[in-house]
Design a protein that fits this description.
Elements lengths: L3 H8 L2 H20 L10 H22 L7 H25 L24 H26 L7
Helix pairs in contact: 2-3, 2-4, 4-5
């Protein structure tokens, strides 16, 4: 996401917003609540982690509150489908690079919500099952505000 956000901020394509709003709020917020930092304060990794995660949230909230971009219910499903493609890409890259992007090969060493979802590969399946309800929960404030006429949805 940190690689996609500069492209999004330059082009400001709505379809990118539709995807990133759910990925960033749903995923990055988890990273903020349960950080996976191997080296503590004051290390480069510590500061990089927080700058990237909080920066992603700041950028997406800037687009929501300042630029008035809003997701739709269709955005939930577009984001979910894009996430499936992203997961397949990450599985390929993890295999190619012997990496663990998106925690598809093993859970993070630090405590996280994945600890409640079982061992590999069950935590991936459980994660997949809760993504759409989580995305709908993220969409709920936009839906309520739209129904009350306080926000204009696209």
């Amino acid at each position: 996401m940190a690689l996609l956000i500069p492209i999004f901020t330059y082009y400001r394509k709505y379809v990118m917003f539709e995807i990133l709003v759910f990925w960033i709020i749903g995923g990055t917020l988890q990273g903020v609540l349960t950080p996976d930092i191997s080296v503590g304060f004051p290390s480069f990794d510590y500061f990089r982690y927080w700058v990237v995660h909080l920066g992603l949230l700041a950028i997406i909230f800037y687009f929501i509150f300042e630029l008035k971009m809003r997701p739709t219910l269709k955005s939930v499903f577009k984001s979910f489908l894009a996430l499936q493609a992203y997961v397949l890409l990450m599985m390929f890259l993890n295999n190619l690079l012997d990496a663990n992007y998106f925690y598809l090969n093993e859970k993070p060493q630090s405590a996280s919500l994945l600890d409640y979802f079982g061992e590999w590969p069950y935590y991936i399946v459980v994660g997949q099952l809760i993504i759409i309800p989580m995305f709908i929960l993220i969409y709920l404030p936009f839906f309520i505000a739209h129904k009350r006429g306080k926000l204009l949805c696209k």
